[in-house]
Design goal:
Structural class: alpha+beta
Largest sheet: 6 strands, antiparallel
Oligomer: single chain
Shape: elongated
Order of helices and strands: EHHEHEHHEEHHHHHEHHHHEEHHEEEHEH
Distance between the termini: 18 Å
Length: 418
């Protein structure tokens, strides 16, 4: 079934070129020589290629190669939506289309957030002291602890929310600035954190954008990792007590990316769901009708979620197809896809959770569906790697895509919505 929103480039050749050109097109497109000859001059598209997926470089390369071959002959380029064919209204300028594709292909990969161990340790020590002080002075029912910074990634400060405190102030349940503890223990306990951040320099003193982006990602990742370390040692409780506490790490003003940290730092449950529904700045992930229909028609066994991030996606939708060609597999298709690609053989410890529609797989670590704070960040990372190049070192050989699969899919689905 054609996706009604997918955009394709169509090249129509209006005359038959010489035999040498026919042979070159045959090799380039993988079509028989007679089929290339049939399409030339008939009005049928010589090439129909989906655009604006995750394989911009390959799409641009193929389109440019075809246009180089047919440029001496009468031809047209069309941008077609869904299953529509070429027509007078779909004609487009080849150079402009290639410029768009090339520009998209040149977009930098997102930086992989990597916590700095030393910075993480300093933040964790300060947070432990500040929260212990808060609990001792105010023995209340605390249901949220946060580390917050600004869009400039300045030194973070701790904040907290309690049932009693929100009742006293009458503020919103999730509004940290309006609660009674918007900044607690910063002056007493965060002096070393301020010094550590200042030693790294002002964020905007970095000489280039990629370096600045990497530093910003490292600072936020270190804040998140500090909370994760404390959680792993049981500082925020265990069992039901832990499920009654939400950990947050992010920015003020809020950012859509804050939802990713909430998903990584906390077990699934009513408290996390409430924050995502009521306070998240990011779009919600909606159910995909096509994968729902596939699941209902499936009669075999269902695969367990390979990690908490995929489990979270499956609670919203049993897989997903996006107009850009991205597919995320559901519990009805994941095992078969992995068996076909022989992932266990070539990339042990990894799982293929989807593909980009252009020959690259979306790979994640297989950690099991249960929440484990010690593995929270790594189990959420998604890497893109050619399916023909599967190997144990996916994180080293692949391209980092995201550490918030649900957020990435929700954002792309919202952007593609008509």
């Amino acid at each position: 079934m054609d996706d009604p929103h997918a955009v394709s480039a169509c090249v129509v050749l209006r005359e038959r070129p010489p035999a040498a050109v026919l042979m070159a097109l045959h090799r380039l497109l993988g079509l028989g020589v007679s089929e290339v000859a049939r399409r030339a001059g008939s009005g049928a598209p010589l090439l129909r290629r989906a655009l604006f997926g995750n394989d911009h470089p390959e799409a641009a390369r193929l389109l440019r190669a075809v246009l180089d071959l047919v440029s001496p002959y009468r031809h047209e380029v069309h941008e077609c939506v869904g299953g529509a064919g070429p027509g007078p209204a779909t004609r487009t300028d080849a150079a402009a289309l290639l410029a768009v594709l090339t520009g998209a292909a040149g977009a930098p990969d997102p930086p992989r957030p990597v916590p700095d161990p030393a910075l993480t340790g300093v933040i964790a020590a300060a947070t432990r002291a500040a929260v212990a002080d808060l609990r001792a002075r105010h023995p209340e029912d605390f249901y949220a602890f946060a580390l917050l910074t600004t869009g400039e990634a300045l030194p973070p400060y701790p904040a907290a929310l309690s049932t009693e405190g929100v009742a006293r102030t009458g503020g919103d349940r999730w509004s940290l600035p309006d609660g009674p503890y918007p900044v607690w223990g910063h002056e007493e306990h965060f002096g070393a954190v301020v010094g550590a951040f200042e030693a790294r320099g002002d964020l905007f003193s970095f000489s280039c954008g990629p370096a600045r982006d990497a530093e910003y990602a490292a600072r936020l990742a270190s804040m998140e990792e500090a909370l994760r370390l404390l959680d792993a040692e049981g500082f925020f409780g265990a069992g039901a007590d832990r499920r009654g506490v939400l950990l947050l790490s992010g920015t003020l003003p809020p950012d859509p990316g804050d939802a990713g940290a909430v998903r990584r730092l906390n077990p699934a449950g009513p408290l996390r769901d409430s924050w995502l529904r009521e306070a998240s700045e990011g779009p919600a992930l909606r159910e995909d009708a096509r994968t729902r229909a596939e699941l209902e028609a499936h009669r075999g066994a269902l695969a367990p979620a390979p990690n908490p991030a995929v489990a979270g996606v499956w609670r919203c939708t049993p897989g997903l197809y996006l107009p850009d060609g991205t597919a995320v597999y559901g519990p009805h298709s994941l095992a078969e896809r992995n068996a076909t690609a022989e992932v266990d053989r070539y990339a042990p410890g990894w799982v293929l959770v989807g593909d980009d529609g252009g020959g690259r797989g979306l790979l994640m670590r297989r950690t099991g569906p249960g929440f484990d704070p010690a593995a929270g960040r790594e189990s959420a990372e998604v890497f893109l790697l050619d399916l023909g190049a599967l190997c144990p070192g996916v994180a080293a050989e692949g391209a980092f895509l995201t550490d918030d699969l649900a957020g990435l899919l929700a954002g792309r689905a919202e952007h593609a919505a008509p």
